[in-house]
Amino acid sequence: MTDPKAELERALAQAVAVVVPAHADAAVVLERPKQAAHGDYASNVALVLAKPAGRNPRQLAEALVASLPACPHLLSADIAGAGFINFRLAPAARQAIVARVLAERDAFGTSPVHAGQPVMVEFVSANPTGPLHVGHARQAALGDAIGNLLATQGYAVTREYYYNDAGAQIQNLAISVRARAKELLGESATFPEDGYRGDYIRELAQHYLDRLGHDLSDIEAIRRFAVAELRSEQDRDLLAFGVRFDRYYLESSLYTDGLVEQTVARLVASGKTYEHEGALWLRTTDFGDDKDRVMRKSDGAYTYFVPDVAYHVTKWERGYAKVINVQGADHHSTVTRVRAGLQALQMGVPAGYPDYVLHKMVTVMRGGEEVKISKRSGSYVTVRELVDDAGRDAVRFFLVSRKADSEFVFDIDLARSRSDENPVYYVQYAHARLCSVLRQAGIAVADAVQFVQGADLAPLQSPYEDALLRRLADYPEELAAAARDFAPHQITTYLKELAREFHSYYNAERFLVDDVVVRRARLALAVASGQVLRNGLAVLSIAAPEEM
RNA sequence: GCCCCGGUAGCUCAGUGGAUAGAGCACGCCCCUCCUAAGGGCGGGGUCGCAGGUUCGAUUCCUGCCCGGGGCGCCA
User: Fold this and answer.
1) What is the CATH code of the structural domain delimited by A128-256+360-417?
2) CA-to-C1' distance for A27 and B56, Å?
3) Closest-approach nucleotide to residue A169, Cα vs C1'
4) Which nucleotide is nearest, taking the CA of residue A51 and each C1'?
5) pLDDT tens digits, residue range A225-241?
6) A421-539 maps to which CATH number?
7) Which nucleotide lies closest to A305 by the C1' atom and the CA atom?
8) Which nucleotides of chain B have an atom under 7 angstroms from any protein CB?
9) Protein CA A319 to sugar C1' B75 (Å)
10) What is the pLDDT of residues A74-103, one digit of tens each?
11) What are the residue ranges spanned by the domains of chain A?
């Protein structure tokens, strides 16, 4: 069956072309009314066109309804309020979504619109100067989910992690570790003013002494050791969190491969650079920046901004016409700079390239008090702690359940609690519950789709069933919108609503009734609901348990 | 001072150029002889930060202001 909504939109557009030919190209969009009493879909097209057409909105709506071509999916079209047209679907049209879900299964909701288009999502990209903390966890959950969302729209997704393993912070790390190592050996050591003060630095120093001996003269060896140790620890944390990257891109390779020098040369050749007070500047103000930026400092070293541009040149040249960088909002100022650098190179990169998702800070509450996060002072909550305490699923769900640009208060006690205050259980429980019904009916969960395929769906007509059917039908659009907006929180919201409707239904009616036709229809609806819950949770990389 | 983002129920947060602004938690009452009560039902609770403007219609768009966060480095 064709999509009832799309068909109705076409029919309404035809009516518009007949009634107000001058506005035949008006956008006709159906939306889901807030209230079920207003039907399956509503259009405000009569309100929008009333003024330009010089007609009373209600009369215009009447005329549009009268000119509506016959549509088998449509039960009724009523005028309401100021001039809304409310459409009610024939039951069969509403029920058809169940058959579609059962036919498409894991693919239900996905779309091939962007099939074959490569996209890169860069996220986490933490400096290897300490363990990953809760802010990185938010980024990991967001980036991974955004990657999944884009994949549902057909994109060929690459997840990349950029390692800043070449800058002053790394040198600082090495010096910090050496100072702690000297202390451990009982030697006097001056700890750097802005050094890394976390306990893990002392542990690193001890490991170094244990494995590589007591000679601390080779700062380069200490640097390599510390970076390798911290990287592997980060890898373990990410693994525990269930996040995988397709590639780790090392900042140092930009230097060793000559890409930094090459980028500088190209920028100079572009004519957008100038020398001032011994430094090399890029005229980023030509591209919307509020001041020009230094590329090469008077001491000859590059600012971080040059490898950043060089790195993004590689993204473009590696064929990623679409790139999303997930970063903390504290990196906001880099956005204009990186884009300006790419524009200056005049290599055909669009002005808005790359896209950014900037997320706000995470405040961690424990025992009713804020836990301060600071790598340097060493008090913070690591990804590992969170996952160990609250479980991967709860942490994932929590961290993507808010808009990226709103600040997030992570209540550790709440995430740890296995209580009904924890929203992830609510959604997972809906899934476990319907699996339980299937078991009760003697159906293996794995065979369920097979079992209900071809069921007569006609009995599904109660308000609870209508609500569930409508919600299922909305999933593909919700998914597409969330992917378009890089907004996984739209999926958590959707899943909570779907779960709520399932729980309501579960309490209101029984699935395992004696009437075989009704029973089969309801089980089909349950199986379809379970399928969509699974699909949505999969986008967030969260498990859909069959039992809880 | 300038730039970006938030401000919606007691708390944590969704939402939208339209029809009576929602959910969870918290609070009160009710529902397991019956598919998992990790659930459901009913109820109280709001000047959508403030003030203007655009619009047939603004919580949504525009401007100004207030509050909170972040950024304004030859740091990353």
Assistant:
1) 3.40.50.620
2) 19
3) B76
4) B56
5) 999 999 999 999 999 99
6) 1.10.730.10
7) B76
8) 2-7, 12-15, 17-26, 31, 34-41, 55-56, 69-76
9) 31
10) 999 999 888 999 999 999 999 999 999 999
11) 4-89, 128-256+360-417, 421-539
Confidence at residue A310, expressed as pLDDT on a 0 to 100 scale: 96
pLDDT-derived band at A407, boundaries 50, 70, 90:
confident
Task: Read off the pTM.
Answer: 0.94
Statement: residue A503 has pLDDT above 90: yes
Q: Is the pLDDT of residue A370 over 80?
A: no
Closest CA to A325 of A143, A541, A482, A157: A143
In a 13 Å sphere around the CA of A435, the CA atoms on its Cβ side amount to 18
Give me the long-range contacts of A334-339 (CB less than 8 A, separation at least 24). Answer: A334/A305, A334/A308, A336/A284, A336/A287, A336/A288, A336/A289, A336/A290, A337/A284, A337/A289, A337/A293, A337/A305, A337/A308, A337/A309, A338/A305, A338/A308, A338/A309, A338/A312, A339/A287, A339/A288
Chain segment A121-155, per-residue pLDDT in tens? 999 999 888 888 888 999 999 999 999 999 999 99
| CA-to-C1' span, A51 to B62 (A) | 22
Name the nt closest to A47 by C-alpha to C1'.
Answer: B56
Q: Please tell me which residue lies nearest to nucleotide B25, judged from CA to C1'.
A: A421
Q: Which fold has domain A4-89?
A: Gyrase A; domain 2 (3.30.1360)
Distance between the alpha carbon (CA) of A414 and the C1' atom of B64, Å: 41
